[in-house]
Amino acid sequence: MNITDINIEQAEGIAKMLLQEHEFRTMMCYYRSAMMEIETKFKVLNESLNVTHDRNPIETIKCRLKDPKSIIEKLWRKNYPLTLDAIEKHIRDIAGIRVICAFPEDVYLLAEFLLKQDDIQLVRVKDYIKNPKNSGYRSLHLIVKVPIFLANEKRMMNVEIQLRTIAMDFWASLEHKMKYKKDLEDAEEIAEQLKACAEEISRLDIAMQSIRNRIDKKDP
Ligand code: 0O2
User: Which residues lie with the beta carbon below 6 Å from any ligand 1 atom?
Assistant: First the structure.
C-alpha cells in the first residue's frame, strides 16, 4: 500500500481509526484473550489424548496476532472501509493459531475434538489437505468463534486455526519466504520445484501415517 495513493474517504478512515486508538487496543486485547483460550483448549486436548489414546498429537503450537499494518492492508485490498466495525466484521484472522502435528490423522482428530466442544462455533472450514492450493499448500483451516469472559460481559471472538503436519509446515515456511522475496529471477522454476516437493511431502506423510498405524496395531 502506498500512502500517496489514498483518497479522502480512506484517509478519513485511517484518521478515525487512530483517534480510536484506545478502542483499537481494547479490541486487540479481546483477540489476544480469544487466542489464549484456543491455545489452552489445544493444550488440554493434547493432555487428555495422552490418557485416552496414548499419544500427544501436538508437536508445537504457534500463536500470532495480526499487526495493525497487515489489518489495514487487508481491509484495503478487500475494499472495506477502514473502521473498527469493518475489522470485526470482515477480518477473521486477527487471532491466529497454528497447530503442528506429526501425522495427518492427528490434524483431523484435533479438529474434530475441538469442534465438539459446546462453547465453540464453527464459522468456516477450508480443507487444503484434501483440496491443496495450486501452489501445493496443504493445511486444514478453521475459523471458529470462542467466548471470552470479561469483567461485565461475554464476547464471541473469531480465531483462525491452521492445522498441519510438521512436513507441511516445513514446506509452507520455505514457500512463504519465496513469496516475499522480490526480484527472484527463477521464481517460476522454484514454484514448480516447490509444488513437486509438496506432493512428495504428502506421500511421505501418508507413508509415515501408515507405518504408525501398523506399529499401533502391533501394540498389546
Ligand atoms: P499470515 O501472515 O500468514 O497470516 P481470508 O482470510 O478468508 O480473507 P483467504 O486467502 O481465503 O483469506 O484465507 P485462507 O486461504 O484460508 O488462508 C490464508 C492464510 O493461509 C495465509 O495468511 C497463510 O498463512 C496461509 N496460506 C494460504 N495459502 C498459502 C500458500 O499458498 N502458501 C503459504 N505458505 N501459506 C498459505 P496470510 O494472510 O498470507 O498471512
Answer: 93, 96, 126, 133, 135, 137, 141, 172, 175-176
**Mean per-residue pLDDT, 18-28:** 84
The residues pairing with 154 across neighbouring beta strands, listed in sequence order, are 149
138-159 burial code (b ≥16 CB/10 A, e <16): bbbbbbbbbebeeeeeeeebbb
**CA within 13 Å, CB half, 168:** 28
Domain 3-218: top CATH class:
alpha beta
Q: Is 185 a catalytic residue?
A: no
What spacing in Å lies between the alpha carbon of 219 and ligand 1's midpoint?
39
Per-residue pLDDT tens digits for 59-73: 999 999 999 889 988
51 CA distance to ligand 1 middle (Å): 34
Q: What is the mean pLDDT of residues 94-102?
A: 97
What separation in Å is there between the alpha carbon of 129 and the centre of ligand 1?
Answer: 14
User: Using alpha carbons only, what angle is made at residue 99 by residues 113 and 36, rounded to the nearest 5 degrees?
Assistant: 80
pTM (predicted TM-score): 0.90
pLDDT at 187 over 90: no
Residue 141 corresponds to which cell in the numbers above?
483451516
